[in-house]
Design a protein that fits this description.
This protein is of the alpha/beta class and 282 residues long. Helices cover 33% and strands 26% of the residues.
């Protein structure tokens, strides 16, 4: 089925839990997912969701586990982080102590660990994409590049040419993901990083998610990392932030269909799915 995104306000976890209470919902969702799983050419599209970082990471991890067990189809989703958060790579152990006590606009900045690798990302003024799928090349860099095809194609349709970055010698010691650009990241023609991505892989199942920096606050970035933002701020669309996000998502949805030869079925997370995911918090 074809699906056109709208510029409605993003859903929130709390609003979904308070409005989705159908007694037969679980059976309906299970039937729908079974249909998607059997088709092979239909992905689930979960619309834009705003939630705390730990919730977003729990959702991505759950989608990965479900797909790896053959219980869930490939999935594309987009999300934003509320409140503002810093996400750490799964193996990232060193970071400035003051990150545990950051305040921005009167609210604490969350510190969250991703299930994927890489370095720290400040999630403020960004849009995150997430893809869970299987059947990719076994080589990690080739699988990155296969997934990144839709990012390159989608942004090209918006007039932005992207190519892969080249990390400097000290990137391993830089805690800031957007301080350098590796071969898994996408940069503009001017060499400025726009998208930083990370992966989790188990067998043939891959979770890849990444931050698209749209309008980060330079003062907050300076406060967190002690340096100015060197990536690309993308603010070429006139209108509200939600209109900008919608246009980007529309372009990327179309690119996924083209790059992977699939259709997307619009299906928000159900009440039962959210409760299962939230109940797994340690």
């Amino acid at each position: 089925m074809n699906y056109e995104l709208t510029v409605d306000e993003p859903a929130t976890v709390h609003s979904q839990l308070s409005t989705l209470n159908s007694s037969g919902e679980s059976a309906v969702v299970h039937s729908q997912l079974s249909t998607l799983n059997s088709s092979g050419k239909v992905w689930r599209f979960i619309p834009l969701l705003e939630a705390p970082g730990w919730v977003q990471m729990a959702i991505d991890a759950w989608l990965f586990e479900q797909h790896s067990q053959g219980l869930h189809p490939p999935t594309l989703r987009f999300y934003t982080w509320q409140p503002v958060a810093i996400s750490l790579g799964y193996h990232q152990r060193q970071y400035p102590p003051h990150w545990q006590n950051l305040i921005w606009q009167g609210n604490s900045v969350d510190l969250v660990r991703r299930p994927t690798g890489g370095r720290a990302v400040l999630h403020q003024g960004d849009l995150t994409y997430s893809v869970v799928m299987s059947g990719l090349p076994p080589n990690r860099m080739q699988s990155y590049q296969k997934i990144c095809e839709f990012l390159i194609g989608g942004w090209r349709s918006l007039g932005v040419e992207l190519h892969y970055g080249h990390a400097g010698r000290g990137y391993i010691h830089n805690p800031n993901c957007f301080g350098t650009a590796t071969a898994a990241d996408l940069v503009t023609a001017e060499g400025k990083k726009l998208i930083g991505s990370a992966q989790l892989r188990r067998g043939s199942t891959v979770l890849q998610h990444g931050s698209m920096q749209l309008n980060p606050d330079p003062d907050l970035f300076q406060h967190v990392f002690g340096t100015g933002f060197s990536g690309e701020k993308w603010h070429r669309i006139r209108g509200t932030g939600h209109e900008e996000e919608s246009m980007i998502m529309e372009a990327l949805v179309a690119a996924v269909k083209h790059c992977f030869g699939v259709e997307l079925q619009h299906q928000p997370l159900s009440d039962s799915e959210l409760r299962t995911i939230l109940s797994q918090k340690n």
